[in-house]
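To the structural biology subgroup,

Please find below the input and predicted structure for Sulfatase N-terminal domain-containing protein, which we are adding to the shared reference set this quarter. The sequence is reproduced verbatim from the submission form. If anyone notices a discrepancy with their own records, reply to this email rather than editing the shared folder directly, so we keep one authoritative version.
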Amino acid sequence: DRNSEEDYFPAQVFREGARWLERNQDAERFFLVLDSFDPHEPWDPPLYYRKIYDPDDDAIDFLSSLYGRADQLSGRVLKRLRANYAGEVTLVDRWLGFFLEEMRNLNLMENTLIAVISDHGHCIGEHNLVGKQGHPMSREIADLVLMIHHPAGEGSGTTCESLIYNYDLPPTLLARLGIEPEKPMDGKDIWSLALGKEKGIYDHLTCGWGPFVMVRDRRYWYNAYLWGESPLLYDLEADPKLEKNIAQEYPLICERMKDLAIADAGGKVPEFLRKLKGEPGCTPLLVE
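Predicted structure (tokenized):
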């Protein structure tokens, strides 16, 4: 039951995080991870946050994403979905701000490394889709947010569009703190990109969801079944919003991108992924 904004999950998480800081502010070292979970569904922010983006008081409301084709929904429904999502983001933003303000009050901003990273995005009408899917996997879903605050101001105010993985964050943070990992880690230190000392570390990225794979380099965005069926190919220079599939026109590029994915998967398509074709659900779990 929620009687006020402070009863919502992001408020509880960031308030508890602030209390933890108060208890540990004098520690020589500390490490704190907070997961707000939101703005995941259900999108049910306080009404006043939703009304920022959709002030109408009609009875229509949807707290979860209506997965499927966007053209099967009315413009009114899409507007409310977007407003609920935006309201949820605003709720998270407000309580992240509360947490950062507490860090300032405790004089921790000057000696603490802070990183904020997102999970995945969501289509709410883009590409005529509502949902988060592995095919088509669009930039709205796969492009993540990463913000890093360095206490000494290194890289302050800069932005970077280089290709990186989310698992590059741990080795990057450890390197800034002068800590050697006890065991080998996936990922690379990306700080040189943030400072503009390098333009790129990876020549391509590969990610997957269920039996689907997405491979992108600086020019092309490829998305298909891991073994190559139902290919989508986009030219990022000519078509940054991924609106024109050119897979049939450039089969050799599709083949090259598929080969990169299989190589990154260890040289062959895992058999359990082949069995997932046509199965409902999201990410597969392999239980041995």
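Summary notes: Confidence is low (pLDDT under 50) at residues 283-288. The first strand starts at residue 68 and ends at 69.

Regards,
Lab coordination
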